[in-house]
Amino acid sequence: MIGDDCMTLFISNTTNIIVTAGIVVIILAYLLLQRKYIKKKGDDINKLVLGLLYFFDFILLVGGILLGLLVWGFDYNTFLDGFWGDFSAFILEQIGDIILSVIIVLIISFILKVIKIILKKSATKEGPNKKRRVTMLKVTNSLINYTLKIIMILVILSIWGVDVLPALAGLGILGLVVGLGAQSLIKDLIAGFFIIFEHHFDVGDVVEINGFKGRVIDIGLKTTRVQNWKNDIKIFSNGNITESINYSLADSFAVIEFGISYGSDIQRTLDLLEQELPKHMDKLPDLIEIPKVLGVTDLASSSVNIRVIAKTNPEAQYGVERKLRQAIKELLDENGIEIPFPQVVVHEAKKN
């Protein structure tokens, strides 16, 4: 009799294990296929379809857990009867605290939303200090967000009968311990504070930090994010920023150097440049001043080198240089002025 019971229990447990393993395998197989599908579609996948897939994931996981518990003999009726009874008693007893907590959360959320809207409108205003204003508003929004959420948590804890004064004292001690053990973090925060308030650079400025050049896309109290022209994003800890160059504080200069042959008329070339280059002020909006022809800068081995400079908006010199080089080449070709290039002269030996 005991042997039959043991055999029945063994068969029952084996069946449960097999069914549970089957449920797990089905869920994992579905998630793997879904991941391959999403990866294959990439950015082309419809957002609604993606949302439905994630919703079905949730339903599948919950259903799998419930089915697994049912296979192992979990009594849902007893559980639900006890749960709803305790839950109903809890709700009736603490209904006042629950309503007050919800009101606190709604008030804080409303305040944060209003502050976010105000700061966003302030950030969109045009003006000479727009980048500086955007940087300060981002930091202000972050500080207000964290401060109000901490206050909200403390108020809710006090509503539920938690003595927050010992908690605050504990936070002070914990802060001291963390401060002693996280000196690099404190260093980053202090460095970030001075970067922001001493106006080293702002969001949108083109900078070079520790040899990495790019545009600042975000400044925080702990880290600074810089994106270069290849869209690579490098994250710097503020405490590790030992040297930086801000290319956006002053106007830039486009420098174009080219050579003409020794047989060309130098004065005629300079006069043509002085006459034609000012016409590009309307064509190139990044030009601040009329391009200046500095004159001959070098008598090279096979060319007379001439330099032209032009003041541009910050970091706009690269595009201006390309356009002016093209214009100068076309101008020289139209007027028959030769730009020398390497040539090889071959002499054929005379036969006797």
Structural account:
This protein has 352 residues and is α+β, with helices and mostly antiparallel strands. It folds into 4 domains: 2-74; 95-181, no CATH class; 190-246, Roll (SH3 type barrels); 252-334, Alpha-Beta Plaits, CATH 3.30.70. It has 9 helices and 8 strands. The protein has helices spanning 2-41, 47-71, 76-93, 95-124, 130-159, 164-181, 183-197, 266-276, 317-334, and strands spanning 206-209, 212-219, 223-227, 233-237, 244-246, 252-260, 292-299, 304-312. The strands form 2 sheets. The chain has a 5-stranded antiparallel beta sheet with strand order 4-3-2-1-5. A 3-stranded antiparallel beta sheet has the order 6-8-7. Helix 4 (95-124) packs antiparallel against helix 5. It starts with a helix and ends in an 18-residue tail after the last helix. The model has no long low-confidence stretch (mean pLDDT 78).
Q: How big a fraction of the residues is strand?
A: 5-15%
- N-C termini distance: 125 Å
The helical percent reads 55-70%
Order of helices and strands: HHHHHHHEEEEEEHEEH
For the sheet with most strands, the description reads: 5 strands, antiparallel
Query: Would you tell me the overall average pLDDT?
Result: 78
Low-confidence sequence ranges: none
Number of domains: 4
* Sheet with most strands: strand arrangement: 4-3-2-1-5
Classification by helices and strands? alpha+beta
DSSP helical segment count: 9
Tell me the overall shape.
elongated
Q: Rg, please? A: 36 Å
Number of strands: 8
